[in-house]
Write a structure and sequence with these properties.
five-stranded antiparallel beta sheet, 8 strands
Length: about 190
Amino acid sequence: RAEFARLAAQARATDVPAQIIPPSPVAPAVEVDPTLLPGTRYRLLRELGKGAMGVVHEAQHLDLMRTVALKVLDLESRYGKLERERLLDSARLDLEAANRARHPGLVKVHAIGRDARGNVYLSVEFIAGSDLREKLGGTPPRDPNTAFATLADVAEALAALHGQGVVHRDLKPENIMLREDGSPVIVDFGI
């Protein structure tokens, strides 16, 4: 203490003018990339569609350079906090079960997360192709054998999903994508 008091007194006694510290430079403006989903590693490439629960984008994971279908859910405007959490817990369990089924007719789920705004997103396998509604174009299929084979593939995928205790809550032609080889894939498990 004595040494500190001596140094303080000595500093007060000297006639050295105080140094003026120059102001800090202005920080450069941070440019926000509008194509990124805020707080994630996903670049939104194009909108694929809108549904009751949110918007689906074709996106690219920047680290993995993987193209995915990214569904950004809008739960805030529809549900209270407790209901949102219950829905998310249920969705997480369903998606984990769907992944355990490991069936080629079920879309692969890569990730579930939240963006910087708190919106929930689902990252799933991107399937280049059309959905069954687009393929049919409102007309019955020309080849009944192809139609039956497609229905059998969908039924087999549903059986695998049901085998994991999951019921698809929104099965319709728009939620059945067709790969380039024509094989069907069930997507959007009603979430």
